[in-house]
């Protein structure tokens, strides 16, 4: 009916107006954020999908990095970062888990991981690992290959850099293709001339 169509049109215009107003408000907030010197990132209130997409667009136009976080649609929110303070993967993971990002704690965790990696490396260098299956093929063929032949081979093994290419020295025929073709044509001419 015409009334429904008019009502629908009015609703659409109202939605469009709201989107335009929302975008203007976000542009102002993003502009304030850019001018705020001591603020590397800003977290916005949870908002719906359309509002989040508008905010992401505003951030992109302003040259900022933005991400959405939160599990369910009602609590999903946007965080905007200044380019020079773009978040690390660890920082993003913390936000995805719903945790606050603490650079000092992250640095401590990184140091602990480094320490664990160094200890693991030291253990590997310290000595052999506990023996595997009782009938290891290396033991079975030790009299043939020796005890550290495999390690030595692994160290010395190097890819053949010229694999698939024949070195010039190994070529019997050093003529170019043109020279070879000219020679063949000359022999053919001689044969034809001799046959006539």
Automatic annotation (TrEMBL):
<dbReference type="InterPro" id="IPR034068">
    <property type="entry name" value="R3H_sperm-antigen"/>
</dbReference>
<feature type="domain" description="R3H">
    <location>
        <begin position="20"/>
        <end position="83"/>
    </location>
</feature>
<feature type="region of interest" description="Disordered">
    <location>
        <begin position="92"/>
        <end position="139"/>
    </location>
</feature>
<dbReference type="InterPro" id="IPR017330">
    <property type="entry name" value="SPAG7"/>
</dbReference>
<protein>
    <submittedName>
        <fullName>SPAG7 protein</fullName>
    </submittedName>
</protein>
<dbReference type="Pfam" id="PF01424">
    <property type="entry name" value="R3H"/>
</dbReference>
<dbReference type="InterPro" id="IPR001374">
    <property type="entry name" value="R3H_dom"/>
</dbReference>
<dbReference type="GO" id="GO:0003676">
    <property type="term" value="F:nucleic acid binding"/>
</dbReference>
<feature type="compositionally biased region" description="Basic and acidic residues">
    <location>
        <begin position="93"/>
        <end position="114"/>
    </location>
</feature>
<dbReference type="InterPro" id="IPR036867">
    <property type="entry name" value="R3H_dom_sf"/>
</dbReference>
């Amino acid at each position: 009916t015409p009334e429904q169509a008019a009502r629908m049109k009015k609703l659409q215009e109202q939605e469009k107006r709201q989107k335009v107003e929302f975008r203007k408000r976000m542009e102002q907030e993003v502009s304030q954020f850019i001018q705020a010197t001591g603020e590397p990132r800003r977290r916005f209130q949870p908002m719906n999908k359309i509002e989040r997409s508008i905010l992401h667009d505003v951030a992109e136009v302003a040259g900022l990095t933005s991400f959405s976080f939160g599990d369910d649609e009602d609590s999903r929110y946007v965080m905007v970062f200044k380019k020079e303070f773009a978040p690390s993967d660890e920082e993003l993971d913390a936000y995805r888990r719903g945790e606050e990002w603490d650079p000092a704690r992250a640095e401590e965790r990184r140091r602990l991981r480094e320490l664990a990696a160094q200890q693991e490396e030291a253990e590997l260098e310290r000595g052999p690992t506990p023996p595997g299956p009782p009938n290891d093929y290396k033991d079975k063929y030790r009299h043939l290959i020796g005890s550290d032949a495999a390690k030595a081979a692994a160290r010395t093994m190097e890819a053949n850099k010229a694999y698939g290419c024949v070195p010039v020295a190994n070529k019997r025929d050093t003529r170019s293709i043109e020279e070879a073709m000219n020679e063949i044509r000359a022999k053919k001419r001689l044969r034809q001339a001799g046959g006539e």
